[in-house]
Specification:
Elements: H1 2-14, H2 29-37, H3 39-62, H4 65-91, H5 96-101, H6 105-110, E1 142-143, H7 150-160, E2 163-169, H8 178-188, E3 194-201, E4 216-222, H9 229-245, E5 253-257, E6 261-263, E7 275-279, E8 312-320, H10 321-340, H11 348-359, E9 364-366, E10 387-389
Parallel strand pairs: 1-9, 2-3, 2-5, 3-4, 7-9
Antiparallel strand pairs: 5-8, 6-10, 7-8
Helix pairs in contact: 1-2, 1-4, 3-4, 9-10, 10-11
The structure holds uridine-diphosphate-N-acetylgalactosamine and manganese (II) ion.
């Protein structure tokens, strides 16, 4: 009975962290999940009770007084040993995550090799968010707080054994922004996963590329200096595709960010997919006529006024490395054609990025929670600010 109570108690509290992000907790939640899912514990408990009842029945019906006493003592001691072994095994957690998921000794012993994850069943008739679009007309998910369970995603992702790259450019005076960028990445970016930071700079001697995690690497690559900011924006596209091709960037997924961002809350594998773009916080509610696409027909980045889905910001995008290769190569080629025609797109790489995404739709879209700016008035749809852009304190 003691071990049964321990199970209920542990499960009630242990399941709490498994809720979806932003989801409300009900007091009955733990109990329902216990009855719903913990069949192993229940089976073991019922089986043992039957065996104990049969033994007691046998002892009292078929034994003499003298042996009855010994047998009762023996049965009592055996039960105590079993209960203590149960409690000992149940309390053993190999990892912190096992403790949280209840994936503990006794369950492992009876269900070897299983990685249990306990969470509330999704309800097909109840969308997790109703005030925002959570899937595009081309069936790409739009990631908002409350639409995903990071524990499930982490478990699925771990099986792939993939490494995630985070590339950033810090040229000229921008090297000073690297400290905050890397410190907040260490704290909030892809916790528990293999990560390589790729830092591009024209002044490697000034850059301190450090990480507090033993399983993270930080690689610094030297670049040339460029005479204008616009040149830096656009050169990034060229450098990225060349380095992916030459395997200087050697990961499965690549996330590319401006250095004037800081991570403000957890950003995990929910942002990964084939090709991922982030909604510009200034334009996500506006009509397409407000989008600052390139409107000159002479540019490769031209988008007519009656086309375009969303306005994406080019300061935080991600994808499988092959997709990032295709996208950066295509943008670089378009930039070079514009260059030869003496034209620079209105928002540089961002204009070309938006043009590419018009014809190669992103497979996942990140809400502006993933690239917020303090200059914008926040409304209730923005539940968790995860990344802040525009942190220029040079
Ligand atoms: C008004 C304007 O021009 N906006 C551009 C710029 O917005 P932003 O105002 O975000 O530009 P920014 O100054 O952050 O520059 C973009 C990024 O390039 C790098 N960098 C830039 C300059 C420099 O001297 N050293 C350096 O390292 C750095 O990583 C920086 O974060 O960037 C966007 C892409 O993200 C678009 O291209 C925008 O068109
Ligand atoms: Mn920026």
């Amino acid at each position: 009975m003691r071990s049964f109570c321990t199970c209920i108690n542990d499960h009630f509290w242990r399941e709490m962290p498994q809720l979806q992000e932003g989801q409300q907790v009900s007091i009955f939640h733990g109990f329902t999940m216990f009855w719903d899912t913990d069949t192993y514990v229940m089976d073991i408990f019922i089986f043992r009770s039957i065996v104990a009842a049969a033994a007691i029945f046998y002892i009292y019906k078929y034994t003499e007084n003298s042996t009855r006493c010994y047998l009762s003592l023996l049965l009592f001691s055996l039960s105590l040993i079993v209960i203590f072994v149960d409690i000992y095994l149940y309390r053993q957690c190999d990892t912190e995550k096992d403790c949280h998921t209840g994936n503990t000794g006794m369950l492992k012993a009876f269900n070897p090799g299983s990685e249990r994850l306990i969470y509330e069943k999704p309800n097909i008739l109840q969308p997790p968010r109703t005030n925002v679009m959570i899937v595009t007309p081309w069936l790409a998910p739009v990631v908002w707080t409350g639409t995903f369970n990071r524990d499930i995603l982490n478990q699925q992702f771990k099986d792939k054994n993939s490494t995630i790259g985070l590339s950033v450019f810090a040229l000229g005076g921008y090297w000073k922004l690297l400290k905050a960028f890397l410190e907040t990445s260490d704290k909030f970016f892809m916790m528990g996963h293999k990560v390589i930071y790729y830092v591009y700079t024209d002044q490697p001697d000034k850059v301190e590329c450090t990480t507090i995690h033993n399983d993270r690497e930080c690689k610094v690559y030297k670049t040339s200096s460029y005479d204008s900011k616009a040149r830096v924006f656009m050169k990034r596209m060229e450098i990225l595709h060349l380095d992916i091709k030459s395997k200087k960037i050697d990961v499965q997924y690549l996330v590319c960010a401006d250095v004037d961002i800081v991570f403000h809350d957890q950003v995990g594998v929910e942002i990964l997919s084939d090709l991922v773009a982030t909604l510009h916080p200034g334009y996500y509610k506006t009509d397409r006529s407000y989008f600052t696409y390139e409107r000159r027909t002479s540019s490769q980045a031209y988008i007519p006024s009656n086309e375009g889905d969303f306005y994406y910001q080019a300061n935080f995008f991600a994808g499988k490395v092959q997709e990032i290769y295709q996208m950066t190569k295509s943008c670089d080629e378009a930039i070079k054609i514009d260059d030869s025609n003496g034209i620079i797109a209105v928002y540089h790489d961002e204009s070309h990025f938006n043009k590419y995404l018009l014809h190669h739709k992103p497979t996942k879209i990140l809400s502006p929670e993933y690239i917020w700016s303090w200059t914008i008035r926040r409304t209730s749809d923005i539940q968790t600010i995860r990344v802040i852009h525009g942190e220029k304190n040079i």
